[in-house]
Specification:
This protein is elongated. Strand 7, helix 10 and strand 8 form a beta-alpha-beta unit. Helix 1 packs across helix 11. The chain has two domains: 6-37 and 85-129 and 176-252, Rossmann fold (3-Layer(aba) Sandwich), CATH 3.40.50; 41-82 and 133-170, SIR2/SIRT2 'Small Domain', CATH 3.30.1600. 39% of the residues lie in helices and 18% in strands. The strands form two sheets. A six-stranded parallel β-sheet has the order 3-2-1-7-8-9, with helices on both faces. It is an alpha/beta fold and 256 residues long. The structure holds 2'-O-acetyl adenosine-5-diphosphoribose. The site of 2'-O-acetyl adenosine-5-diphosphoribose (OAD) has 25 residues, from helix 2 and helix 11.
Amino acid sequence: MSHATTDESVRALAGALARARHIAVLTGAGVSAESGIRTFRDTMEGLWKEFDPATLATPRAFARDPGTVSRWYDHRRLGCLAAEPNAAHNALAELERRTLARAGRFTLITQNVDRLHQRAGSRSVVELHGSIIEWRCTITGRRTTPPAKPLPAFPPPSPFHPEGLLRPDVVWFGEMLPESAVEAADEAARACDLFLSIGTSSVVYPAAGFIELAHDHGARVAEINPDATPLSSRAAWTIREKAGVALPGIVAAMPA
Ligand code: OAD
């Protein structure tokens, strides 16, 4: 792992990004932090500080108290809708455009459920943990995108089945990740020659495993995070900066 200065790492990474055949990116809550959406673990104000995930973010919690769980998720959904993409989201959308314009491949894998990448214009988004913006019927599995106002009742009845409820289309602890998302992330991690890990504590699997998979398949890894993570040693470049500062700088440093 290089001990280059941040500027040297930014310039070197910008050059590698301009030449890469296939860029894969894994984002975590840190990328949405500058949009005002709280992360899970990294600060004392983290979301997990207010509640024990086992009491709200599991299928059993929803089965036991669907009203409380759906009310809490609707509160977070409205927060995500009220948030705006930040400079990190916008820089990643620009990086994708530039990569595709030179016939490179680009895959954005996200653990985030806020859809801010899509709102910033990213096209190839793989949602490993689903989306809080969409909700689905507990009986039929059919999805709906509720309007940008509080749900009318808790727990929300399903419009698709008389006995159904609506639940957020996110992955809860203990649930399987969407198969198509895992397959897309797996393929990109194996095929890419450059892998950016941005704003994730790299402690939740299988998501963090894609960093290791890319590295094991010969990709060079860059980690953009103010803090070190358990997978920092896999990174050829570590940029200890906020994503909303580092990413615009990296894109600006790319050769035209
Ligand atoms: P975490 O809250 O675990 O980690 C956030 C990471 O972002 C930390 O490493 C911070 O250092 C870093 N960070 C904070 N502010 C940043 C900034 N402005 N720019 C860049 N990095 C910043 O969030 P995740 O790693 O995304 O899963 O958590 C992974 C999963 O755990 C989530 O997707 C969620 C949770 O359980 C499910 O809900 C299934």
